[in-house]
Amino acid sequence: MTATSSLPLVIGIGNTFRSDDGVGVWVAQRLRRQASRGVSILEATGEGGALLEAWKGAASVFLVDAMRSGAVPGTIHRFDAAVEPIRAKFFRTSSHAFGVGEAIELARALNQLPPHLIVYGIEGANFGPGVEISAVVLHAAAEVCERLLTEARFAGAELGASKSPSDDRP
User: Cα separation of 2 and 54, whole Å?
Assistant: First the structure.
């Protein structure tokens, strides 16, 4: 995205070869099958520089990533990055030194933070090699998909995105 967009942008973050770390990508893929044309959906590895470029010009952005905060696996965390700092240590599941938390805080420092930036973190259980996502994490991911369908539609309506009658289907 390089021009200002009124479509809400959902970015699913993760590594699909590190078990629960792939949950953000899973959410993006599921939303792509469910969402109306009124939402842009991307998949990303979580590398900070790429995130800054991906949300450039977007007015409303939703990030989804696996996290480790010490909470019970499957716990859903929701952060409004436009009003509160994001603790980078919670999103240390990436092998990149410059990841989600750092990208958000750098964008804030450079005055390049999207006006509306919501981060959904899903507490992971297993970040080892593998392609299977834990059942408890998948259950939480399905809940996040439902929340995002509602929030992204609402954000799109607030931003003036056009809707068709099919946009109201679940």
Answer: 8
pLDDT digits (tens, 9 = 90+) for 48-94: 889 999 999 999 999 999 998 999 999 999 999 989 888 765 665 45
- Of 69, 43, 46, the closest CA to residue 122 belongs to 69
Give residue-wise pLDDT tens across range 17-55: 999 999 999 999 999 998 767 889 999 998 888 999 999
HEC assignment per residue over 53-71: HHCCCECEEEEEEEECCCC
- Backbone dihedral angles phi then psi of residue 25, each to the nearest 5 degrees: -65, -40
pLDDT per position as a tens digit, 142-162: 999 999 988 987 776 554 443
Rounded to whole angstroms, the Cα distance separating 88 from 141 reads 21
Global pTM?
Answer: 0.85
CA distances from 122 to 67, 94, 125, 164 (A): 6, 14, 10, 31
Question: 19 near 127, Cβ under 8 Å?
Answer: yes
Please report the domains of the chain, with CATH numbers, ordered by start residue.
9-161 (3.40.50.1450)
Q: Which of 170, 137, 1 is nearest to 68 (CA)?
A: 137
